[in-house]
Amino acid sequence: MFRKRTIAMVFCSVLAIQGCGEKSATEYMQEAQTALSEGSTETAMIQLKNVLRIEPQNAEARFLLGKLYLERGDWAFAQKELERALELSYSADEVVPLVAEAYRKMGADSQLLKLDLKSKGIKKSDLVKIRYYQAKAYIQGQQEEKAQSIINEIKQIKTNSEYKSLTSYLEYKLKKQDDAALIQLKAVLDKSPEHPEALLLTALESLKQGDAEAGIEFLAKYRDVAPLEYEYHFLLAQLYVDYKKYEKAEEVVDELLTINANQPYLNQIKALVRFHQKDFEQALHFANISIMSSPEDIPTRLVAGAAAFELRKFEEVYQHLNLIASALPENHQALRLLAKSQLELGYALEANDTVKRFVELDERDAILLSSIAGALSQSGEKRKLASLLCVTKRINWKGNLNSIWSGEIVAK
């Protein structure tokens, strides 16, 4: 009885000590504010979460936490916290522009369009920016009349915001006045060379017109000023690869891989870049990472198969290329790699079936076909060898391999 009472007293004492050590929500908020002033974002976030653990209805903590999530690119968390701040009646003129940005980043156009903008405290520059993106959302949703209505409203707002000028770009696009729209974009960039939206629109317009060099240039500038817009970083990396700017492509991809090391498309590009740099080990490595997430992706299988072939890893060549062979067009170069690998692995009959898909043959195929013929001859496959002879008659190379193979058939 005495022992139980002692344990209970000790337990209560521990709880009392812990209770005395617990800070108040006010103290946590003060520490969060201090961390913010010192640029310690992670510390600030921890302290704000402590505030909300004690006071879930603390609107300021919700707002500050949502703002930090937005700054680090956690759009979904930012949206959640900022919406809660609005529900808890935090200053709408501060919250609305940020929650609008979260909706835009999330691609939540329906929520962006429903956003209440009646708060008298919202700055004109913020209001124009939100209304610009609402007009853009209506255009993308093919609701041109509603877009034009917003454009007309923006025209009445007195502000020097670049988004008001960009609204004129939208109007020119609505009216199919593309030349005037491009002039308007140039005017915005002349005034604000690093304006993110103007850079992005100029990049996309350039690509649309077939000016890839300009598109890449403006997209690279956009990446510098909008480091969290990963969708367009992907596009930039792909464009670099398409135009054989492999070092630049790798720079973009490496940065993105620090965020998501297993993203299949990123690993596919990394594999392709490494292959073109003749780093076949790494090309195969990154291709295999991509394949783990997208096992049916044909381009990645092709890179993996080609890299494995260069490394003379014929089992892996067979593994990758045999899986996609039926989906490849006739005479695809990968079929030659597959046939060579099948032969190396002793699958002469499979190699024979593969070469039947060679529509055009030249001298480079002579050694391969001759080797397959030799393997068929050794295994006594007379009928298969005769069939292969028919294939070789389509080849116009120097020498007389056909007669040699014919002699082998006769001899057997």
UniProtKB/TrEMBL annotation:
Keywords linked to the UniProt accession: TPR repeat
Instruction: Pinpoint the residue ranges of every TPR repeat in the record.
Output: 59-92
**Is 4Fe-4S a UniProt keyword of this protein?**
no
Pfam family name, one: TPR_19
Q: InterPro entries in the record, alphabetically?
A: SRFR1-like, TPR-like_helical_dom_sf, TPR_rpt
Q: Does the keyword Amino-acid biosynthesis apply?
A: no
In Swiss-Prot or TrEMBL terms, this protein is called Tetratricopeptide repeat protein
What is the organism field in this record? Psychrosphaera algicola
Q: What is the lineage of its organism?
A: Bacteria, Pseudomonadati, Pseudomonadota, Gammaproteobacteria, Alteromonadales
